[in-house]
Design brief:
The protein has a single domain, classed as Rossmann fold (3-Layer(aba) Sandwich). Helix content is about 40%, strand content about 15%. The chain has nine helices and seven strands. Strand 4, helix 4 and strand 5 form a beta-alpha-beta unit. The longest helix has 25 residues. The protein binds nicotinamide-adenine-dinucleotide. Nicotinamide-adenine-dinucleotide (NAD) binds next to helix 1, strand 2 and helix 4.
Length: about 280
């Protein structure tokens, strides 16, 4: 899809991966609405980037907030792209700890609300708006990009709820693409490995995440995620696909499992499941 004259809604646009994408799309001339409950960060980013970026303080689970974001995007161009890059770290223990502590049931519901319901809601309401667009020469009216995680495939100890939610993002990609193909709307998801964003700020966690990366031996840069969003939007033949973006990282059984191999005691995931 050509980007000229288009606009986008980025849910989680005040965060690490979302924010990098807001900056990148803006540089490419796309009008962008940052939909994020972190009002101060969203407004600061919009103010910094100027007139082609607007902030809507809100939650992608809330229809009113999504509708306001779509209306704002329609005033910045032909609204044709939505991206969900939403998240907060929801810490969880193992399903049952050695001391008998049981993972609270709400952790699963919290993860599903944040990582599945919000993106689902943004996708369905955006698709309804895209359906009104004139198709381009390939018949395209819009593109939906969701953010899964490599935890959907190799979820580690303590991450069952997060992995279940990200697995749902993976699983809904193809049926959404099938639902929306008659309308000329594509759907893809990105499954990142460890990226350098504010939720991965601890040097200890960064070092643990890098252990599983093959090459290049470092965490991903948010700009590299934004480049993949651009590629998905531009390439009409990418559809119904989940793309891993992880330096060929394959996660071991638990965060810090390399330390176990080196003889240190096994330890619980200190990250709350970031990847
Ligand atoms: N950073 C990583 O290493 C990594 C790895 C794999 C997957 N991911 C996934 O990528 C996504 C973004 O991660 P990040 O590192 O940029 O996180 P981040 O914490 O930097 O940013 C997330 C943003 O989402 C916003 N947000 C939270 N709930 C929202 C909602 N309901 N509606 C709209 N916005 C909401 C937050 O306010 C925040 O600004 C998450 O889904 C995360 O699970 C990240």
């Amino acid at each position: 899809m050509q980007l000229e004259g288009r606009s986008a809604v980025v849910a989680g646009g005040a965060g690490g991966l979302g924010g990098a994408t807001v900056r990148h799309l803006t540089e490419l001339g796309v009008g962008v609405v940052v939909l994020d409950p972190a009002a101060e960060r969203a407004e600061a980013l919009a103010a910094e980037l100027g007139g082609h970026v607007a902030a809507v303080a809100g939650d992608s689970n809330h229809d009113d907030a999504v509708a306001a974001a779509i209306t704002a995007a329609q005033s910045l161009g032909t609204f044709s792209v939505c991206l969900s890059a939403t998240g907060v770290v929801i810490r969880s223990p193992r399903l049952v700890e050695r001391d008998g502590t049981v993972m609270p049931k709400h952790v699963l519901a919290d993860n599903l609300t944040l990582h599945v319901s919000g993106p689902f809601n943004l996708a369905r309401l955006s698709a309804a708006a895209f359906a009104q667009n004139e198709p381009d020469e390939d018949g395209q009216r819009g593109v939906i990009v969701n953010t899964a995680s490599i935890s959907a495939f190799d979820g580690q100890a303590t991450m069952a709820p997060y992995a279940a939610a990200k697995g749902a993002v993976v699983s809904m990609t193809l049926p959404m693409a099938r639902d929306l193909a008659p309308l000329g709307i594509r759907v893809c998801a990105i499954a990142p490995g460890g990226f350098l964003t504010p939720r991965v700020s601890s040097p200890q966690v960064q070092a643990l995440l890098v252990e599983d990366v093959l090459f290049p031996k470092r965490l991903g840069q948010p700009h590299e995620y934004a480049l993949l969003v651009e590629a998905i939007v531009r390439n009409p033949y990418l559809n119904g696909e989940v793309v891993r973006l992880d330096g060929a990282a394959r996660l071991g059984p638990s965060m810090g499992h390399g330390a176990s191999r080196r003889g240190a005691a096994d330890r619980a995931d200190p990250t709350g499941g970031v990847a």
